[in-house]
Design brief:
The radius of gyration is 28 Å and the shape is rod-shaped. Helix content is 0%, strand content 38%. By secondary structure, it is mainly beta. The protein has a domain of 37 residues. Bound molecules: zinc ion.
Length: 87
């Protein structure tokens, strides 16, 4: 697994109060019907530096539903009707 595409999380953000990039703490802010809202807090002064919404696993990117294991599709050799040759 070389790439972590789509799994980016901020670890440092610029804080205007501290006037420098600070490490941030992530805090769960809100739970939405389709995801969660996280807030980034400056680890230095506690200032809110940003928010991030994450999709709840199982909603937006859920595993596509499998077809129910019903009857197998008839795909065998179709019996050919002998027709017309010897009659
Ligand atoms: Zn700060």
């Amino acid at each position: 697994m070389a790439s972590q595409f789509g799994a980016f999380t901020a670890s440092e953000l610029y804080c205007p109060k501290c006037a420098r990039a600070q490490r941030v703490r992530e805090r769960l802010l809100l739970i939405l019907p389709d995801g969660e809202l996280h807030e980034y807090l400056c680890s230095g002064c506690g200032n809110s530096l940003g928010q991030r919404k994450t999709a709840r696993p199982g909603s937006a990117f859920s595993i596509p539903p499998r077809p129910p294991p019903g009857r197998p599709t008839p795909r065998g050799p179709v019996p050919r009707r002998p027709r017309g040759l010897l009659s």
